[in-house]
Amino acid sequence: MKHRIVVLGAGYVGATTAGRLAKRLHRDDVEITLVGADPDFVERVRMHQLAAGQDLPQRPLRELFAGSGVRVRTALVTAVDVDRKTVALADAEPLRYDTLVYALGSTAASEVPGVLGHAYTLSGKPDALRLRTRLETLAAGSSVGIVGGGLTAIEAATEIAESRPDLTVTILARGGVGDWLHDRARQHLRAVFDRLGITVCEDAEVTRVTERGVTLADTSEFATDVTVWTAGFAVHPIAAATPLTVSDTGRVVVDRTMRSVSHPDVYAAGDAALAPGPDGRPLRMSCAAGTPMAWRAADAIAARLTGRAAPEAAIGYALQCVSLGRRDAVIQRVTFDDQPTSTVLTGRLGARVKELICAGAAWGVGHPTVLLPSRRRRVATGPTGDVANRSTYAEPSTGAR
Question: Can you give the pLDDT at residue 368?
Answer without folding.
Answer: 65
